[in-house]
Specification:
Blueprint (H helix, E strand, L loop, with lengths): L1 E7 L6 H11 L3 E5 L13 H20 L5 E5 L5 H9 L6 E9 L2 H13 L7 H8 L9 E4 L5 H9 L2
Parallel strand pairs: 1-3, 1-4, 2-3, 4-5
Length: 164
């Protein structure tokens, strides 16, 4: 049986790093970062671009789920509302597939420090911490397994996700 891991969390919490590591640790795995399906300059959030991103995500995830080479399909994206998770799943055939929804969280202090480090390295804009912190409480209301990453290493987080 395949497993589809849906890993959400605010910007800067470590989704991509965790999922890249998880891809290497789980057998026969493939990883899709939702940001890759909507990487534009300038980045524009409209009804049309949202629909396009979801269509791109569903298309790729659907192909991964149908491909017999993969046992584990790992997807990460911000997914700060239940309707986003539901929209991703609504377009997929998950019969015969175990779906594991996870939200990565962190303390405000840890998240701020991580984002500031990213901003100093030129990977994030100056307003990233404020935007990420505003979304942090939204994850508490989702139908997901919550994993607090505050004082955990990437391997520890991966072990927790793999054990679900």
């Amino acid at each position: 049986m395949k497993t589809l891991y849906l890993v959400g969390g605010p910007m800067g919490v470590g989704k991509t790093a965790v999922c890249q590591r998880l891809k290497r640790e789980l057998p026969n795995s493939v990883f899709l970062d939702g940001d890759w399906c909507w990487d534009a300059d300038p980045f524009q959030v409209t009804a049309e671009t949202r629909a396009m991103a979801l269509d791109n995500i569903r298309h790729l995830l659907g192909n991964f789920l149908r491909c017999t080479a993969y046992e584990n399909v790992i997807f990460c994206w911000v997914m700060d509302r239940q309707d986003i998770l539901d929209s991703v799943l609504a377009g997929l055939d998950t019969s015969g597939c175990r779906v594991v929804p996870v939200s990565l969280t962190a303390s405000k202090e840890a998240l701020t420090a991580r984002i500031r480090a990213d901003a100093a390295a030129g990977r994030r804009g100056p307003d990233a911490a404020e935007r990420s912190l505003a979304r942090l409480p939204l994850y508490l209301d989702l139908n997901t397994v919550k994993i607090d990453t505050t004082s955990k290493s990437i391997p520890e987080i991966c072990r927790e996700i793999a054990a679900l």
